[in-house]
Design brief:
It contains 23 helices and nine strands. Helix 14 packs antiparallel against helix 17. By secondary structure, the protein is mainly alpha-helical. Strand 7 and strand 8 form a beta hairpin. The chain starts with 18 loop residues before the first helix and ends in a 22-residue tail after the last helix. The strands form three sheets. It has a five-stranded antiparallel sheet with strand order 3-4-7-8-9, with helices on both faces. Strands 1-2 form a two-stranded antiparallel sheet.
């Protein structure tokens, strides 16, 4: 164990001797670290716990300042403005204390009994171990704490590795937001790669239009500052070499709606000739499934896709597009809106602890967890984060625009059986409509002059400029709002990112990622460089690519722990129905009226989403993450 100076307010913990103790210690120390930052942000005025503590705008403009340090995208400068020139407050020391308090046992444990899967000699052994840990964690005395294996996880399914479960995760998993209609160029390239495979060529020529979709991670190298053929690899201090990939997965979506993985480019290196492409032996979702378990080359290919998606989910969809983008909204709004402005009133309840959790992410979670687990180096991750931030398409990601542009027509989501399994898409469009109705009910009454009144609202104009400015949020795609509809959409998007969007990509992590083989963060052996080499892969090669060898168990533990840390149940006080209840009791009669309507709408929404979940083909896991009771009103974790 590394040496620590345990000050009176830092709780010391002995080095854990069991897997469960390690999990418990990491969870509780993470919670302590978060509480410490919550406390600091409270007393500093960034996130006051007092119900009515809105400072005058001039004071908030001094308190809320954008910091752009060339590492992370623009974010809150966290030294209180009154102390900036006094040299009294050293915020760096607080961060050092937070790091000290956070027991991430990736760094602290060596040789702990039962820490990881050391010695596993088969995939079946890993599945059996997962079942044992779940059984032990879910069948205990009431006074014993739960751990990450207490809830069910995907590894408890006998079919977790199948094409059907893999495909369904693109629709209802941790990242259901990036599956996109395949471009003509990708269809052309996959057709070239399929030469000699008549079954696949027949499908390409006979399938209805718009039947092929991709998960496209081919941009990773350019976005991370690598050359087209440079290997994605990193070696964390004292750890094993990690290997990454920029996969491209091709899916077939037949009229029946059973999404099916058809082909995978393991690691796109700029051309087909420089990349390895493999096609599924099961060309159709109705083909026999008896060979799936032992089709190791194809299972390896799907694992490469999951590793690529680990990066896109954690770094892009979750960290950057939710946490970091929403933080700029908070800072810009605090700097530009008076506290009695209707937009400020609509947004402020969706900022609860967002600033402090983001501060914790920048100080601890990213450098101490994400970076050590990733196959990208620290510098490459920073470059990737900033690329994803600068290319964030604000209006393009409005849910109606996003779904339509990715090949999921709004008018057909419910009526066309082809789309019936897209639980996220069918849910999120309804959640968006519900929140937009609430926002509209408030803003329409506050802007009786309509577009003309919005166009002359200097506060709205200043907010847009602050989001766009090179001295502010640096978000070039942020709209210049001049119409009432534009304002309603913009405000809905601010709430959407903080509430349902973050909920959708955060709270399923424990289920899909605690069982590491389903979605590891990196490979632990080099990728095959030819199709011939891949076709010779067996079970031993899959195991060799996972962190199951002696000395790698710390990585396994951290891969499994972090999803558990980030997937607690949403407390009732932080849920959307509670937000609606509070809005219905607001002193502003316009907000109160809209809140009462929202309460009723959320009850109706729950019924609609429950019905949609029951219509999905896969009924093993209820898709309930966006039920209003399960949706957090803000980014609180």
């Amino acid at each position: 164990m590394r040496k620590r100076q345990l000050l009176p307010y830092i709780q010391g913990r002995p080095l854990p001797s069991t897997y469960q103790d390690a999990i418990k210690s990491t969870v509780s120390s993470f919670q302590e670290a978060k509480r410490t930052l919550d406390w600091f942000f409270d007393i500093s005025g960034f996130q006051s716990s007092e119900e009515e503590n809105d400072l005058p705008l001039p004071d908030r403009q001094k308190l809320y300042i954008f910091q752009d340090d060339d590492t992370f995208p623009p974010h809150l400068q966290t030294i209180p403005w009154a102390d900036q020139n006094a040299n009294i407050f050293n915020f760096t020391r607080l961060y050092d204390t937070i790091v000290l308090m956070f027991h991430a046992y990736y760094l602290d444990i060596n040789g702990v009994e039962k820490l990881g899967p050391d010695g596993a000699d088969s995939m079946q052994a890993l599945e059996d171990r997962n079942r044992t840990l779940h059984s032990e964690a879910s069948d205990h005395w009431w006074f014993q704490p739960d751990n990450m294996f207490t809830p069910v996880n995907v590894g408890l399914r006998d079919d977790w590795y199948t094409d059907a479960v893999f495909a369904q995760q693109q629709f209802t998993g941790t990242n259901p937001t990036t599956l996109t209609l395949a471009s003509a160029n990708w269809i052309k390239l996959f057709t070239q790669a399929a030469q000699g495979n008549q079954a696949v060529l027949n499908l390409f020529s006979s399938a209805p239009a718009n039947s092929f979709y991709v998960q496209d991670y081919s941009y990773f190298r350019a976005a991370a500052g690598l050359t087209p053929t440079e290997d994605i690899t990193s070696t964390p201090a004292g750890g094993a070499v990690h290997y990454g990939c920029a996969s491209v997965a091709l899916f077939y979506l037949p009229p029946s709606g059973q999404l099916h993985p058809l082909a995978v480019i393991l690691d796109w290196k700029g051309s087909l000739a420089a990349s390895v492409t493999i096609f599924n032996r099961r060309v159709l979702p109705t083909d026999p499934t008896d060979s799936e378990k032992n089709d190791w080359p194809w299972r390896y290919a799907k694992m490469c896709v999951q590793i690529s998606d680990w990066t896109r989910h954690e770094v892009t969809v979750h960290l950057t597009h939710a946490h970091f983008v929403e933080e700029t909204v908070v800072v810009a709004a605090q700097r530009t809106f008076p506290s009695d402005h209707p937009v400020y009133k609509l947004l402020k309840e969706h900022w609860t602890t967002t600033l402090s959790i983001n501060s914790l992410a920048r100080s601890v979670l990213v450098p101490k967890v994400v970076m050590p687990l990733s196959a990208f180096t620290e510098a490459q991750i920073v470059t990737l984060v900033n690329h994803e931030y600068t290319t964030f398409d604000w209006t393009g990601l409005y849910i109606p625009n996003d779904l339509d542009s990715r090949g999921f027509p709004l008018a057909e989501l419910d009526s066309n059986p082809k789309y019936h399994n897209y639980g996220y898409g069918r849910d999120i469009i309804r959640v968006w409509a519900t929140l937009r109705k609430f926002v509209s009910n408030v803003l329409v009454k506050n802007y009786p002059g309509g577009d003309a009144q919005v166009a002359t609202d200097s506060w709205v104009g200043n907010f847009c400029k602050e989001m766009q400015s090179s001295m502010g949020a640096k978000m070039s795609t942020f709209p210049t709002v001049t119409t009432l509809d534009g304002l309603i959409d913009m405000v809905t998007m601010c709430i959407h990112i903080a509430s349902p969007q973050h909920t959708a990509v955060n709270y399923l992590q424990q289920y899909y990622m605690t069982f590491v083989p389903n979605k590891p963060s990196a490979l632990y052996a080099p990728l095959p460089t030819t199709l011939e080499a891949l076709n010779h892969f067996g079970e031993a090669d899959i195991l060799n690519a996972l962190p199951v060898k002696a000395g790698q168990d710390q990585d396994w533990l951290l891969m499994a722990q972090v999803p558990y840390l980030l997937s607690p149940d949403v407390e009732e006080s932080m849920s959307l129905p509670t937000f609606a209840k509070q809005a219905a009791a607001d002193s502003d009669p316009i907000v109160a009226s809209a809140g009462k309507i929202l309460q009723t709408d959320l009850v109706d929404l729950t019924a609609q989403l429950t019905k949609i979940s029951g219509e999905l083909d896969d009924q093993t896991k209820e898709y309930d993450v966006l039920y209003p009771d399960s949706t957090a009103k803000a980014i609180i974790i």
